[in-house]
Amino acid sequence: MVGYPVTVAIPPLPEGFTSALPITFPCTAVRLVPASRLLANDYNPNKVATPEMELLRHSIAEDGFTQPIVTYYDDELDLYLIVDGFHRWTILTREFGCDMVPVVVVEKDVKERIASTIRHNTTGKHKVDLVAVLVEKLLNLGWSDDEIAVHLGMESEEVYRLRQAMGHRDLTAP
Q1: How far apart are CA 56 and CA 54, in angstroms?
Q2: Contact 145, 160 (CB under 8 A)
Q3: What residues contact residue 116 under an 8 Å CB cut-off, 6+ apart?
Q4: Which residues contact 111 (CB under 8 A, 6 or more apart)?
Q5: Distance between CA 166 and CA 129 in Å, rounded?
Q6: pLDDT tens sequence for the chain (174 residues)
Q7: What is the DSSP string of the chain?
Q8: Could you tell me if 33 and 100 are in contact, meaning their C-beta atoms sit under 8 angstroms apart?
Q9: In the chain, at which end, N or C, are there fewer CB atoms within 10 A of the end residue's CB?
């Protein structure tokens, strides 16, 4: 689509910028894309109750749209898959009727996108059964229990319990 580049270089950090650890700033490469070109992912276990959705709508009304939607561009679909910001996108399009939305694009494989979605959603309420499905999906994609625990910020015991919930027979207690 003309005018909506898929690859956007992240601007260099200001001269003199220092950081104790390596870090990138995808948030400096925000772009506006048609809201219709975004697609919800099929693995977000985060559910937001009606009062919190209303508070989010109120926040956007009072403060403006302060956080871009984190996406991954899918070449085959020619769409931006939402990694984080589904509820902001929903309110922006349904409540405010916006046809353009600000996004940043991250380049990650599906395992990393799933983990990123979980990490971004630290304030919502994750449905345990949906998280268990994600653990199983990550196992099927090749991650070990330890990798899942590290990337999702879980204890190994949590991963073990989620595997139990999914009926895994090859369980070894952590």
Answers
A1: 5
A2: yes
A3: 70, 83, 84, 106, 108
A4: 138, 141, 142, 143, 151
A5: 8
A6: 444 555 566 777 888 888 888 888 888 889 999 999 999 877 766 677 777 788 788 889 989 999 899 998 989 999 999 988 898 999 999 999 999 999 999 887 777 777 777 666 655 444 566 677 777 878 888 878 888 777 666 777 877 877 777 776 565 555
A7: -TT--S--PPPPPPTT---SS----GGGS-EEEEGGGEE--S---EE--HHHHHHHHHHHHHH---SPEEEEEETTTTEEEEEE-HHHHHIIIIIS--SEEEEEE----HHHHHHHHHHH-SSSEE-HHHHHHHHHHHHHTT--HHHHHHHHT--HHHHHHHHHHTT-SS----
A8: yes
A9: N
Q: Which residue has the tokens 């599906």?
A: 110
